[in-house]
Write a structure and sequence with these properties.
With 153 residues, this protein is an all-alpha fold. It has one domain. It contains four helices and no strands. The longest helix is centred in the middle third of the chain and has 35 residues. The chain is elongated.
């Protein structure tokens, strides 16, 4: 593939990845604010689906194209901006895999049970607080990555 194709795939991955992170956080927040079991359960189901469909796909595109493009600069161990950018993105991946995915899976199991119930259990809200905190971190890290990669300090 040409260099331009790899750049296009990289940009597409960033758009899909960050777009899903930000949009999901917004509509999940609005859904949670309703406190309606059916709305929250539906939103939680979509968080799980869209994370695997878009966040994972975007991350895969970013990772594969990023490694290919990094070779132009001597690899991820080349210039410090490239190493820092890769490290920030990798840290976001660790947060997503270690904290967010398990949290979302627990929330999804709970949501299946309360979708037709009168109330949402407190455990869901405890997990939601964790999701908001670590989700913010997992969003800010890639945003910082964009600035490092674009500015190449």
């Amino acid at each position: 593939m040409s260099h331009g194709t790899w750049v296009a795939l990289h940009v597409l991955g960033v758009v899909v990845f960050l777009g899903n992170l930000i949009v999901t956080a917004v509509w999940k927040t609005f859904a949670d604010q309703t406190r309606s079991p059916s709305v929250v359960a539906y939103a939680q189901r979509l968080v799980t689906i869209t994370d695997f469909a878009f966040t994972a796909t975007g991350a895969a595109l970013i990772t594969v194209s990023g490694f290919v493009l990094a070779d132009d600069w001597g690899g991820i161990g080349g210039p410090s901006w490239l190493t820092v950018g890769f490290s920030l993105f990798a840290a976001a991946g660790v947060v997503w895999i270690v904290v967010l995915v398990p949290t979302q899976m627990q929330q999804a199991r709970l949501a299946r049970d309360f979708a037709t119930a009168e109330a949402i259990p407190e455990r869901y809200w405890q997990l939601a607080r964790r999701w908001y905190v670590f989700g913010s971190v997992a969003t800010l890290l890639p945003l910082a990555t964009i600035f490092v990669m674009a500015l190449k300090p």
